[in-house]
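Journal club prep — side note

Before the paper discussion, L.F. wants everyone to see what a predicted structure for a comparable chain looks like in token form. Sequence:
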Amino acid sequence: MNVQRQTIISTNLKRAVIFEIYTNNSFDHNKDVNLLLINDGQDLPQMNFIRTAKGLSDFNGMSQLVCVGIHAGLERKQEYGVAGIPDYQKRGSKAASYSDFVMHELIPALIKQLAIAYFKEKYFLGFSLGGLMAFDIAMDFQHEFDAAGVFSGSFWWRSMALGEGYSDFEHRIIHKKVRSKNASGNQRFFFQAGKLDELADRNNNGIIDSIDDTVDLIASLEKIGYLAGNQLAYFELEDGGHNIETWSRVIPVFMKWLLSEQ
């Protein structure tokens, strides 16, 4: 496994963005190349990402998969979110700029760096708030991204604080956005949640909010035409928490799922 650290001075984000490019030792830029972008790439070393990738090195499609870990900036809670729709505390105000950075700066730079004409397929992975951002970009650019993975996604992201007048249907931002979309071709999504992700249970149904929000989002995707099983995968961990240790265990499961269509 080869790892190269790079930096882009982003016009959209008005800062330097650090990222690592992970390529298999047998990578050949003359063949079709696929791309996996990963938010919060600064955490990948703690997730033993290189060891995981090496363990999958012989898995079909792995040799031509380029993985890019994008480091979060100091304004992570502003740059990650839902593009164009800040939450009730005005977080995520730069999510649209982050989307523009990914689509118009990072991906073109990677194509140039790897000396290829294009990426055959593109995927996005993220954790927690970075997972919400990965999913949002995949939904906004449905014909660009073939798959996305979200671990412990911040799908609670809402336009109104909890209390009188709050409605899950009306105020959960990403669920409402999904309802405005249509399903896209063979686009696939992988969702992971853990029963120890949190303690909150705002509707007192005995199920923590992170699981409720994820399951509800999957239902929303089904309603607009995505197919359970074929396009939507859900992986729930009894002992899964909102932490790097849990996510490091899920990465191999996600990668095998991702590459199973290769």
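L.F.'s comment for the group: Residues 2-259 form a domain with the Rossmann fold fold (CATH 3.40.50.1820). Keep this in mind when we get to the figures.
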